[in-house]
Amino acid sequence: MNKKVAVLMVIIVISTLVLSMNVSAYEQTYNTYMKYISNEDCNPTIEFFIQEGIVMSKEYNFHYEGKNWHINAEFFQDMVLEEINNVKCRNASDEQYIRLKDFVMTEGLDNIYKQILSQDANITKEEYAKLIIYFVQSQIQSCLDIENYNTTEYFALPYETLLTGKGDCEDCSILIVSLLKSIGIDSVLIVTTGHALVGVPILDLPQLNKEVQEIEYANKTMHTKLGVPLGTFEARNTEYAFLEATHISPLGYISYSTYNGLCECFYII
User: Fold this and answer.
1) Cβ neighbours around 255 below 10 Å, total
2) Residue 101 pLDDT
3) Which is nearest to 49 in space by CA: 78, 79, 73, 18?
4) How far is CA 31 from the centre of its chain?
5) Which of 42, 46, 100, 139 gives the lowest tally of CB atoms within 10 Å of its CB?
6) pTM for the full predicted model
7) CB distance 188 to 265 below 8 Å
């Protein structure tokens, strides 16, 4: 059997396993891949996002504030696989959403900040925060877990969301919080009924604070084309602005459906 035939058979086997087993497509692919490359005679190319069996990466190019930006989400395979294997449970009922904070990670994400600095050495931390929020909102495709990971609920690590380029509300929220925390902005996750979003601390971010305070005077129940201008909330001795993670939305505005959930209750984690 030549190598091309062997590689094709492995891809078919992986696809069959992903569809037939109650395991996430992402993790199943990696488990099968790692077993296969243990054979030194084989070095397969699997249509996922693995490069040379060492580094995983996905490139993004986008336009923001009149400038073209490039981000290469690149991580060592062993680091990502170790974090994946450390996760004990991905499926969770609503009352277990408190576990989302365990998925916030910053290792390796400072490299993205360095990439942006290499494109604009004068960018401030606050400007970077605005850029990275826009990046996630616009470049990460909103996608249900069943479509992305072949399971109804799957809490993704920030690396997984960056490498797949897809995620649902909690995945994108985890990613934004992780990226902001990697540069010292201590944002939080907000969980309400069936939804997750981000709380961005604004007291130490004067420009963002100014932008959000300008909408504080709006009628908070008023529905606009941008959403509901809810503004900020206070917790843990600081002030946070609400932020939707899965679509382009200004800081302080939330979707109509989110507003209804927040009126019932929400948790800060």
Assistant:
1) 18
2) 81
3) 73
4) 22
5) 42
6) 0.77
7) no
User: Contact 60/70 with Cβ under 8 angstroms?
Assistant: yes
Cβ burial, residue 252 (10 Å; 0-12/13-18/19+): buried
- Indicate whether 105 and 171 sit together in one domain: yes
Mean pLDDT of 190-199: 88
Could you tell me the two tokens for 218? 């709006």
Domain range for residue 17? 3-48
Distances in Å between the Cα of 122 and the Cα atoms of 35, 72, 78, 116, 126 are 46, 20, 33, 10, 11
Per-residue model confidence as pLDDT tens digits over 48-76? 444 445 778 899 999 999 999 999 998 88
For 121-126, the CB contacts below 8 A with 24+ separation are 125/183, 125/184, 125/185, 126/205, 126/206, 126/207, 126/208
In this structure, the chain runs to a length of 269
200 with 262, same domain: the answer is: yes
Cβ(24)–Cβ(90) below 8 Å: yes
The whole-number pLDDT of residue 92 equals: 54
Judge if 34 and 72 occupy the same domain.
no
Query: Is 58 within 8 Å of 163 (Cβ atoms)?
Result: yes
**Is the domain of 37 the same as that of 64?**
no
CA distance 55 to 50: 7
